[in-house]
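Bug: token stream looks shifted between consecutive jobs. Job 1:
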Amino acid sequence: MVAKTHVAPVPLHNPRVGVNDTFADVLAANAEYARGFNLAGLEPKAARGLAVLTCIDSRIEPLAMLGLRPGDAKILRNAGGRVTDDVVRSLFVSAQLLGVERVMVIAHTKCRMSEAGDDDLRRAIVDAGGPDAPELPLLAAPDQEAAVLTDVEKLRASPLLPGVRVGGFVYDVDSGRLRRIC
């Protein structure tokens, strides 16, 4: 005879998460999205063998601007679209297990991360009422083309990404056009 163990019921309300309407709009939109959801069964591999690294800027629609659909590519985003250790980690996993064979590094025009250096950005953050974070590298890139070239070279030289082809681009947020840098 197997002894039964008592399993506590899962509370419907997590006391660590406040109940308010902060996310009501996006939860309602998700409910609508889920009603018509048709991506079940989509493979986790990048169908087009592509990964895209770009900025978090909300004017950028990575799938649409490249003529892609869900499942075609792995999309990585951070402030400035810069190559960081975490980007290399994600690309390593994507290349080894998820079908990625090529990477696009895409900066964009009118990027806040290209308007000043790290020190100036830190001052702007503090002036806006944010905390000072001198230990945090912001990776500002006043010379975007140089930053794209540096980041592309970092990926091309990585022993974790053998055989992965990497190109660098700048996206124009006013025209929707992509310009190849390297």
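Job 2, same session, no restart:
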Amino acid sequence: MARRAVLLLLAIAVGVLLAGTARAYTNAGPISEEIQNLFWAITLFAVIVAAVVFGILAVFLVRYRESVSPRPTEWIEGNRNLEILWTVIPTIILIVIVIISVPVLVYTDTIPPPDTTVRVVGSQFIWTFYYEDGTTSSPDLWIQAGIVVKLEVTALDVIHSFAVPDLGIKIDAFPGHMNHWWMQADVPGDYLIQCAELCGVGHYGMRGVVHVFPAGSQPKIYGPPPRPLPVTDVQLRESGGNATNPWSIAPRNLTFSIGSRVNLRVWNNNSNPYDFRIDAPPTTISPTNQTPPISNYSYTWLNFTINGASPGPIPYGPADVAARNNGMIGYLTIQSGTIIEVFLDDSGGGPGHSWSVRPDPLVIPKGENVTFWIHNVGSQPHNFTLQGAYRNVKYDPPIAPGNSAFAGPFFFPQDASDTYQCSIPGHAASGMVAPYIAGAGGGARQGGLPVFDMAWITLAVCLPVMFAYLIHHARRREDERPS
């Protein structure tokens, strides 16, 4: 029997040692490497202690088995040397573990100089990532291998936890609070993102992927790979019209949104040369809004980005007025959702302040896509950012005096209120700050009752029931009293 026990213990020990070759995740970055090295160092101590304890146990099972020692041994009161030994040795082991753990804690908690910053926003039940250039992705994150990424982690509704086991990342996301952490992936590949905090019925599906791409494979060190730009064909025709307008242009209507990069391939299907022009100001379309003359039965390209809004459809077609009058004219519509104009002014403010922002307050509709048209009407560079629940809504690059910029579109799914301001140091203190109200304001909560409300409800129900139970059972019944 004892021999079988020894064999069983040996089999367990061999299994534990072999289990070290199987990893639950990949060491893809320096944080996970440090954490796993610490794990194996602590495991080594655990294996040594286990080997000593189970070895002594095996010796006792063999030495004092019934066939060898049929009579019980004498009672041993204690052994001071042994007690000192098994007190001092574990204490030394714990001190060593602390000594090797502190550098790892300091390393993981100290953010190196970042190459880029990514804001991580959790909401039921999806992750959204905001990059430095104003672009976003959801639910996946793209970063270049080898770079240091500073993470700013928050949530919009309930508590979430942003976890990437392969990279050694796990950091909580709290509504209204920003946690800071960092990430570095040295090995290109795809690594699972998961929410490690029960956040509701859809918690199981709150996943994503960190796509780590090799250096030099994309134009930027962050963000999704650039998609091939769609091509839109525009045809100029001295036919296809009607009795009033015999000529035509196809398509007659084009629709794009603010921020779109547009590739127009303009065809001249005629025997006469024509140019092509979009009647938009340079601040709306850049770098150019027109082409040189297009040879007959040929085409040319017009590539541009839409930077601004337009109060109505914008005509396009040949610059030749007669060609347009004959029907060779179309209209461009710029979709922007709701446009809200914001003015940053350092030329005058209210009492006690020399600078200001308008409107005051900034009213933002709930449940709509909103684009902010930001005007710097001052004499210094300024930018734009919201605080509170919508701190991801911002335009960080300084806007030069007299210039404008568009930020968005942004979606506002919940009620909230706080302030918006210029985030350049000192500008808000000079008065460049004002309140904003999204929806009904006040920060209405989403996703069920918050933790503290649930705690108060639980106490309000459980405490009376508990006291009633105690009082009821504390009273001794007549038949239970001693006679």
